[in-house]
Amino acid sequence: MRAPLSWLREHADLPPEVTGRDLATRLIAAGLEVETVEQPGHDISGPLVIGRVVSIEEETASNGKTIRWCQVDVGEAEPRGIVCGALNFARDDRVVVALPGATLPGGFAITARKTYGHLSDGMICSARELGTGDDHTGILVLAGEPATGADAVELLGLRDEVLDIAVTPDRSYCLSIRGIAREAATAYEVAFRDPAALEPLPIDGSGHPGEIADPSGADRLVLRTVTGLDPAATSPVWLQRRLVLCGMRPVSLPVDVTNYVMLETGQPMHAIDRAKLSGPLMVRRARPGEHLVTLDGVDRTLDRDDLLVADDSGPIALAGIMGGASTEIGPGTTDVILEAAHWDPATISRGVRRHKLPSEAAKRFERDVDPEVAGPALQRACELLTRYGGADTRHGVTVVGPGPQRVTITLPVGLPARVAGTPIPPGMVVRHLEQVGCTVAGSEDMLGVIPPSWRPDLLAPADLVEEVVRLEGYEKIPSTLPSPPPGRGLTERQRARRSVGRALAEAGFAEVLSYPFVAPDVHDDFGLEADDPRRNALRLANPLSEAEPELRTSLLPGLLATLRRNIGRGLRDLALFEAGLVYLRGDGELPLPVLGVERRPTRAELARLLAGIPGQPTHLAVVLAGARDPAGWWGPARPACWADAVEAARTVAATVRVELTVRSAHQAPWHPGRCATLLRDGRQLGYAGELHPRVVAALDLPERTSAMELDLDAVGLGGIVRAPALSTYPPALLDVALVVPDEAPAAEVAAALRDGAGPLLESLRLFDLYTDPERLGPGRRSLAYALRFRAPDRTLTVDEASAARDAAVAEAARRTGAVLRT
């Protein structure tokens, strides 16, 4: 909302020395958001005066253009000769003259110069040159007979200050000069003159008939009949100037007046050409198949929920949003019906979004408008139309509907002080509430407060407390930070998760965050089977994007999309990871019931709600593409492969001290021959490996892209981690090479060796893989392991270490068919 300071001064007795910036500081302290303070017209300087056209001589220049040699009286001894090309003014008209030495908006300096064979001693100004409007085709002709030689800057209000205020939804009354002036008067504790404090004319039965057929959409409709309007009448310059300062374009007297009164009182109104009406006006919902051409020229198909103003011919306006073209005010309009109403905010808001049709009127109605201001606002508009358009507005008032009822709020006198934590005397509580506009009554301990009609946001004691504290001053509220109890910090789970993130970062992975929303076709791109539980995703009732309406069941879609986006921006070697929630549909009934707040839910209802909440385990995933190790003097680059994805899982497991078992597996979206399942104590934790070529092609990823995904909840974050026992005795290092069938997994061989070796085995590592069909036989391979033995209380003898090794080999032979290679 843009508010000129001169307009605010008309309704608030602000001290003369108060500037726009001073007022902005006070309003900000009162809770309003003043974004900027502009100073239009402050670049105007020099003599800018009112002139009277004494004579006009039309001449045709050598280029064929008709110019006018004018003599203009500017209050001096002799008229000044001025050359002008405009044709819309005549002898004895009052105009604005910029004399030599003046500077107009935009730094336009005026000098006496010779043109078209004459010395032009000044310039007769248009509205655009003065900054009062957009019209540059004609001269600004002033109504009445202002004194020649008078200062035009003061007379027309060309120099002003404008506060641009971002009005929050709970301060809808500040979408008007009336509301902002009230706040300004309160801030400076000066008198306030309400522009809506007008007595409407009595209802005499001669008004245009109206009816509210849908009380849920409107509870009050007020109509005023205006007759005998002069179609040639124009808006006064000061009114046009204020509209321009508030960001609106002057159009015609009836339209300008309705816009002006809307800005002044906050009540939008609709001007209807009475001659184009057919029968009484009715507020109703749209009927199937109805259309309306709005003032912007768009033919709109109406919805059953659309609230309309209609006559016997059909819809003539989208209520509270925009009028219809069929009853638009035209150049020949003489009789006008002014309509103002109190519309249901939710209905207006839905209509704006349905038709994508925001308007100044709708912006106010969807935030709620003072229901008592419709009559005074129409009276104010009638006064202006009578004064400047010669209209007759003495009769023709129609009021339909009782309007909303005001409620009384009970407020303990001491509540504001308790909430603010600072003393606020009871008398000050009453004073602040009355400054807001409330009617206050009651005893010393309890107040009965009736909020004013323009404050629909005051519904509960907490709202009144906020107003009292706001006017008392937020700076008076003591600022004391609570002392946290000692000994608390991150939980074990939080520390473990951060440790995992640090470990992956140290391993060269970059952490990213993805949106948890996915498109349904991503399951097809991943090659998931029809019965794969990951396809059974939860669909959002109101998604941010219709293209991604489902909640993710895996981290990989978002992570791979991030990988593709970075590759598209020139990055080739990437290693990314993400930790976050996935959403798995449970066995409960969906959608969940929406319970009311009038009673406590029953145990059965709570159980039903809890059963329907989806499982939300924490997963961790990594993706790799390009080179894992860069090229250098040490050799060529090493491309990332499935083994790096598996190693990332081992890094996570090592960080939280979990023993991880890796076995080959077949699982989409991984390559069937390069996929590993990750196990802990036989429980499946996730998968790692190279993505299937079809998945890579469908997602437009680099070849050999690899990925890993783990269920961190199943891994066991935050559990008790036992530190390893350390021995001061030397280890015994022994190697074994075992020939095993190709189908025997290396992980099972290692597990057998570990079980057979017993407690003396400290570590086991696979360090060699050898295949040679001629020496080992077809379908067989050699796996070489380094075994380290150590006892906690003594130095092992050769016999003890050898016995442990032989026991390990024997167990491997029994479980996997391994044979000691010689």
Structure notes:
This protein is α+β, with helices and mostly antiparallel strands and 822 residues long. It folds into 6 domains: 67 residues, Phenylalanyl-tRNA Synthetase, Chain B, domain 1; 109 residues, OB fold (Dihydrolipoamide Acetyltransferase, E2P) (Beta Barrel), CATH 2.40.50; 191 residues, 3-Layer(bba) Sandwich (Phenylalanyl-tRNA Synthetase, Chain B, domain 3), CATH 3.50.40; 67 residues, Phenylalanyl-tRNA Synthetase, Chain B, domain 1, CATH 3.30.56; 190 residues, Bira Bifunctional Protein, Domain 2 (BirA Bifunctional Protein, domain 2, 2-Layer Sandwich), CATH 3.30.930; 89 residues, Alpha-Beta Plaits (2-Layer Sandwich), CATH 3.30.70.380. It contains 23 helices and 42 strands. A 7-stranded mixed sheet has the order 28-31-32-38-37-36-35, sandwiched between helices. α1 crosses α5, α6 packs across α7 and α7 packs antiparallel against α10. The protein is elongated. The protein starts with a strand and ends with a strand. The model has no long low-confidence stretch (mean pLDDT 90).
